[in-house]
Amino acid sequence: MMMESLSGRKKVLEQVPMNFWERIYLPAIFKGMAITFSHMFKKKETIFYPEEEREFSENWRGMHSLKRDENGKERCTACGLCALSCPAEAITMISAEREKGEEHLYREEKYAAVYEINMLRCIFCGLCEEACPKEAIYLDGPIVPADFLRKDFIYGKDKLVEMPINELEVLKGARF
Amino acid sequence: MEVAFLIEKLVLVTVLFTLTLTIAAYSTWAERKVAAWLQDRVGPNRAGIFGLLQPLADGGKMFFKEEIIPSGANKWLFIAGPSLALLVSFLGTAVIPFGQNVELFGRSIPLQVTDINVGILYIFGVVSLGVYGIMIGGWASNNKYSLMGAIRGASQNISYEIAMGLSIIALLLVTNSLSFRVIAEQQHGFNWNIIYQPLGFLIFLVCAFAETNRVPFDLPECETELIGGYNTEYSAFKMGAYMFAEYINMFVSSAVMATLYFGGYNYPGMDFVNETLGATWGPLVGVAVLLFKIIAFIFFFMWVRWTIPRFRYDQLMNLGWKILIPLAIANIVITAIVITIVDKL
């Protein structure tokens, strides 16, 4: 018995022998050539990449950034939930305790002394972002750039942590 | 043999050689542009304005790539293959009349390197030699894919040459001459052979696609099954030579088709133009018309390439032996009968 089509788009094709016009190929060829010729005058879809960039969608996930709070302190407390949630095991970190006099750098008593993401392992699923209880990691950056060596794809805190607030302000002032 | 004659032929050969090379080089550019347009893209546009310097860049790249000769290959034949393909492809242009005689420095110069009275047979011979380049290259590579490509090329060329020859015989019944010059002169104005031989032209066109190894008959070099076919093992300029040979073949067969069926350098109203512009500039307009026709044919080759998928091998053989050859024979018979009746009337 034939299965009912669930999508409603199923077409049953019957194998009938080709008629004369189908067998001499030519009408089909002319039809095809007319179609391709009409495409010469259609709008080109090309985006001229270096000059022009395609807009990212709203939920685009790019390079990770480790966020700072409103006072410029790093939010990450090295709890390790992001590393735990990571299906590709791309994240590693070493935690450290905050010393006296570092209160302006780290928000809580514990922080990530080393925080590394292997961008070759990362699949940009965003689970680290979801797992983070401190809203410290977001995948809101650009496309991870190409490089020549594998070791250069292991991004440390120098590349991941957001710029300090005062530098950001300076940059913003320059831009606007 | 006077000096002026030698200089005249030397200049003509040089111009023709340059023209052929330029058109072949820019065919590679045009191929990519046409492919892009037909697929809603823009094509090469980085090297120079509209990417016009792209052939130079490609040529430069070809020279600087590493020349690899596989250790199992027959070295001499491996080099001879692409050389032969390139050499033979150039020979065809020699008999094509590019225009009426031009009056220059008090001499009447024919725009044709040589007018052999069996010009069509000459073209046939030269085109048939082209398959040796493919055969030798494919065999010398010592690679199964190359060998398969070469064998396919040989059998395909042999099959389609028969139908091509038969379609030409029907044309010869109309023209009564094998000389390109005579055939071109007969088609004065708008008296083109396509009007008398539409079916013959169709057969010739299909066979021309097969002879130049272009899609949909590019079985000798199909990328998907044979990883490039006979030129799998070739790199650098030897690869470039094969590619160039293919584009020059395309140019030559376009020129032959334009001359045999589409009036060559003739166009409606040519007498009026010749009278107005004089005996020097008038024929040159004819040359431009012929070049336009050739370029239109080259565009057609490309248009077909980016529309029609490749034939399967058995389909190719069926089309050649079971359809085109009987059709060509029927065409000869019908043409002969019609000519006899018309002559009797």
Briefly, what CATH class of the domain at 65-175 in chain A? Answer: Alpha Beta
Helix-strand makeup class of chain B = mainly alpha
Helix/strand order of chain B, N-terminal first:
HHHEEHHHHHHHH
What is Rg of chain B? 21 Å
**What would the CATH topology of the domain at 65-175 in chain A be?**
Alpha-Beta Plaits
Would you identify the CATH architecture of the domain at 65-175 in chain A?
A: 2-Layer Sandwich
- Adjacency order of strands in the biggest sheet of chain B: 1-2
Q: What is the straight-line distance between the termini of chain A? A: 69 Å
Query: What is the number of helices of chain B?
Result: 11
How would you describe this structure to a colleague?
- The complex is a heterodimer of chains A (176) and B (345).
- Chain A has a domain at 65-175: 2-Layer Sandwich (Alpha-Beta Plaits), CATH 3.30.70.3270.
- Helix content of chain A is 24%, strand content 12%.
- Chain A has 6 helices and 5 strands, in the order ααβαββαββαα.
- In chain A, the strands form 2 sheets. Chain A has a 3-stranded antiparallel beta sheet.
- The radius of gyration of chain A is 27 Å and the shape is elongated.
- The mean pLDDT of chain A is 85.
- With 345 residues, chain B is mostly helical.
- Chain B has helices spanning 3-38, 54-64, 75-91, 119-140, 144-175, 180-186, 198-211, 223-226, 236-260, 270-305, 313-344; strands spanning 102-104, 107-109.
- In chain B, α1 packs across α9, α3 (75-91) runs antiparallel to α4 and α5 (144-175) packs parallel to α11.
- Chain B is globular.
- The model of chain B has no long low-confidence stretch (mean pLDDT 86).
- Chains A and B meet through α2 of A and loops of B.
